[in-house]
## 1
Amino acid sequence: MPIFIKLFGDLRKKVDPNISGTTSLRFEINDAEVERIEDLLKKLNFAENEVSHKFVNGRYVGLKKKIHDGDKVTLFPRNMALLYKWYFTREEDE
């Protein structure tokens, strides 16, 4: 079963340099080695400091959050940082 990915801003341009406009980039991956958010960032060749906010199934999460088949992961770049860290508790699995 896949993991569904949604990228915004500069992150989507790293995956698809030819993308234009302001819509998000959506795709799915099937990789048994992707167990946590940090694994996904490595697979996509994103440095940790490039990603400001991470969500799994609409919940604000950290790098150690586990990802399961069928999960929806949304990533925002540093230049689109929001105020979530002041208003929401970040979920971690460790």
## 2
Amino acid sequence: MKTNKNRKEIQELAFSKFTDQELADAYIFPSELQSTQEKDAEKDFWINRRKQFENKSENEKMYNRLLQLKFQLEDYISSNQYHKAFNFGYFLNEYVNRQDKKDKQFAIEVDVTPAVLSQYINNHRKPKDEFVIRLELHSGGMIPAISWFKVLQKDKEHDIITNQKLRLEESKHVKNRLEFAY
């Protein structure tokens, strides 16, 4: 499935930032001398933590998943790096999936056809401004339209920088180029 492939690429990207030594240093190994009392306290902590998580309502769990997506999206758009896997379609697909909704149901909620939604998710069509505004409204303002636009802009910037075919075609239309010696 395409989504699983994207998730694997994203995990690889996350770990590629760090050297093996940095990853090893990030782990904290418990002391052999840790008392039984400390071990019991830690075990109780994790049991209580798990209970808290399990007692959350489905709405709270969805809210947490969407908040996590918002932070991931903001981290990506604030970074100077472009990653093909993190495109508008990826974030839109994650937005729909983290609500545990089918594409068809979500398409109805934002008033587009399922085919158009699929084209947005698979990056076969760029979304209209109206659709991006609908995403903000649908999220209750949690994910602002400007964040969705910035992801689109990042995709466009990369395309402009790397599209050599377009540059070659357009160079035929430029005459009397300015040349400067530095």
## 3
Amino acid sequence: MKLDILAFAAHPDDVELACGGTIIKHTDLGYAVGIIDLTEGELGTRGSAEIRRAESETASKILGLKVRENLKFRDGWFKDDDEHRLKIISKIRQYQPEIILANAIEDRHPDHGRASKLVKEAAWLSGLKNIKTEFEGKSQQAWRPKHVYHYIQYNVIKPHFVVDITGYTERKMEAIKAYASQFFDPKGETSNTFISKPQFLDVLKAKIFNAGNYAHIDEAEGFTSSYTPALKNIFDLV
């Protein structure tokens, strides 16, 4: 299956939190979109790998994904090395995306920045035919996506561009709330984490409106790029 957009995430819920509105908008537009989570988030204070697996399945339906996989790297301990790069390269070649979305280039959680670098490097190496990978016993062809963009997570990073998600915020929030184990519930899990504070989801909504302010639109999600994106036509700008 060929995908238009393939998003990678260090943990289940990273994509939903950072760019779920962008994903939903593009699946609504008919683009084929998938997510590959690198870990099961098994070191998380709340919930468990099994619970988060079920939650990600619910979220995937809301997002309208064509596929979602988990590479089961070690949460907190995966490395930026040949073994991990090759597994990501194989997935890029399997799905041949035009665009890859990856974790923030730097963030409060060390997994995020490490995953960002790992995916970015794998995306480049995936285009080298002398790097050999296989899928289902067959050699894979080299494939390099046209673009790798990094969504913004918790650190304050000024976006290089924003995607207008006006009208998609509530569905984004629905996908996020599918991860009920991770967020505040007065009758549920009592362990406190950064995102389980009662006000966290309100802060998240505020970030959506703040990203929109960069481009004078109502609601947006921000991204960064390691190179300068180009427009075919200046009227493509909102």
